[in-house]
Write a structure and sequence with these properties.
By secondary structure, the chain is α+β, with helices and mostly antiparallel strands. The chain has 2 domains: 93 residues, Alpha-Beta Plaits (2-Layer Sandwich), CATH 3.30.70; 94 residues, Alpha-Beta Plaits, CATH 3.30.70. The protein has 6 helices and 8 strands. The strands form 2 sheets. Strands 2-3-1-4 form a 4-stranded antiparallel sheet. A 4-stranded antiparallel sheet has the order 6-7-5-8. Helix 1 packs across helix 2 and helix 4 packs antiparallel against helix 5. The longest helix is centred in the middle third of the chain and has 16 residues. This is DUF1697 domain-containing protein. Pfam families: DUF1697.
């Protein structure tokens, strides 16, 4: 049996930290993952963990017994070897990621907004993270008074964020998410990017 996983690197290709897609594919393949595919240049990959003979070691558990923590540890170890520095990742099974995308309460895009998903390394922390971020959300419609009109919603291990176009680095929610990332493993993706990772 085999299992398909989405691997989302945190904080790469921004702030001078560069991980090229070709290097990422190579590092994951050398670590024993198969059918490695990268999506866009923002640190996204799909990998398969196969059964016997997949190169991940004779003592590795069967693919259908692995969980996200196992895959994350294996990926982070491979990236440390390849790039010589710690690169944190969030890992979800492709099935779980599909459920996250399908459950988003916001449209992927509109004329005024984009939908983003904040993925949490510790899914059990979603409730606390939501309370922290939601506390800064302006009253709906506040943009008429010169404030930003945005929204957040809690999901399973994620936060959904409805953000005005062109404002993803400057809104109250973006700043709250950035503060959250200082103490928790998080990474944020556009909903359309995640949708591309639900197949292939």
């Amino acid at each position: 049996m085999s299992s398909r996983w989405a691997v989302l690197l945190r904080g790469v290709n921004v702030g001078g930290v560069t991980v090229r897609s070709a290097d990422l594919r190579s590092a994951l393949a050398e670590a024993g993952f198969i059918d490695v595919r990268t999506v866009l240049a923002s640190g996204n990959a799909l990998v398969t963990v196969g059964g016997d003979g997949d190169g991940t070691g004779a003592d590795a558990p069967p693919a259908d017994e692995l969980d996200g923590a196992d895959v994350r540890a294996r990926v982070e170890a491979a990236l440390l070897v390849r790039f010589g520095r710690e690169v944190r990742v969030v890992v979800l099974s492709q099935v779980a990621l599909t459920a996250v995308v399908d459950a988003c309460p916001y449209a992927a895009d509109s004329e005024t907004h984009h939908a983003y998903v904040v993925l949490l390394g510790d899914p059990d922390a979603a409730g606390t993270a939501f309370e922290t971020v939601a506390a800064v959300v302006p009253t709906p419609g506040a943009s008429a008074a010169g404030e930003v009109d945005e929204a957040v919603a809690a999901g399973v291990g994620v936060l959904y964020w409805w953000c005005p176009r062109g404002s993803s680095l400057s809104t109250p929610v973006s700043k709250a998410v950035e503060r959250l990332s200082r103490t928790s493993l998080t990474t944020t993706r556009n909903l359309r990017t995640l949708a591309r990772l639900t197949h292939g």
